[in-house]
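debug: dumping io for the single-chain case to check the tokenizer round-trip. Nothing else runs in this session.
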Amino acid sequence: VRESAKGGIRAPEAFASVGIGDMWEQVQHIVGVYLIYLTPAFFYKLYSNQFAAILLVLLVTGAFFFPMALLTCIMFDSIRGLNPFLLLGSIFSTFFQYSGLVVLIAGIIFSFIYLSDYQTNSSATQFISFIFIPLDIYLTFIVAHLIGRFFWRNKEKLNWEC
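debug: decoded output
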């Protein structure tokens, strides 16, 4: 995300420039964002075992705030990126561009879910199922790059000074 936010178009050599402690700190920030924005819907579905309006609201709000929360935590290199005033101000200052990013990311994720669900319901061999693991990793890199490029294109509107 950071390399894309700087304007880079190639994958960085992360292991050459970053120590294990820095990587662990980034993992903690990413896991924190996942826990805050995406697990409420998971636990609601787990405990209620039904698809209700509450689940839909949890999914939509989590999916809407997740990319900006992830971007702020990565760019500020701190959990203070989860400040709701910072998130809302950033979303409103780039509302149309950010909404397009969210729709694009949601489309990528739902396409992958549909394809993997289609694969598990069809009579495909187990060999095809191994294709989805690297594809999932690749799509994660694409989403990270999209989030970074969003920052690169909108850094003046965001005015974060990072």
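debug: round-trip ok. DSSP finds eight helices and no strands in the chain.
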